Amino acid sequence: MEQLRDSIESRLKVVLPEDLGSSLMDGVVLCHLANHIRPRSVASIHVPSPAVPKLSMAKCRRNVENFLDACRKIGVPQEATSAPNPTSPGASETPLLVSVTTQTPPPAWQIWDLIGSSLIHILCLVLLFVAYSWTELT
Q1: In the predicted model, what is the mean pLDDT of residues 56-65?
Q2: Which of 15, 51, 83, 126 has its CA 20 to 30 A from that of 21?
Q3: What is the DSSP letter of 106?
Q4: At what angle do helices 94-101 and 57-74 cross, to 10 degrees?
Q5: What CDD domains has UniProt attached to this entry (predicted)?
Q6: Distance between CA atoms of 94 and 4, rounded to whole angstroms?
Q7: How wide is the angle at C-alpha 53 spanned by C-alphas 52 and 59, nearest 5°?
Q8: Torsion sign across C-alpha atoms 103, 104, 108, 111
Q9: Ramachandran region of residue 106, left (φ > 0), alpha (ψ -120 to 50) or beta?
Q10: pTM here?
């Protein structure tokens, strides 16, 4: 459990409360962890606000469901994501969190993404030039 705590704290650069289960209960930290590993894997995270410091159970449940969906997108095996209650890590839930925390974030960009994007931009510029030249001739 301490290794899990250290992994989450070092990745997210946060300090979690002593009771790890209660700090993961609302799913906010879990969703941020998934987004750290694969950006935008959780599109919306319900977070407490100063006006409403405690999330409703429905919002907590939605955060956890979003986290589990993100785990599947990241590549965590289906068997690991079917734990009964991932918000209170015990013996059966710890493998899911360990599996997620051991995933490595993808590189910020891939060379093929850069080349493909550049080619599309060049193609658009050439098409614009041809269209402009054609309109000038007619």
Answers
A1: 92
A2: 51
A3: P
A4: 50
A5: CH_LRCH
A6: 8
A7: 75
A8: negative
A9: beta
A10: 0.62
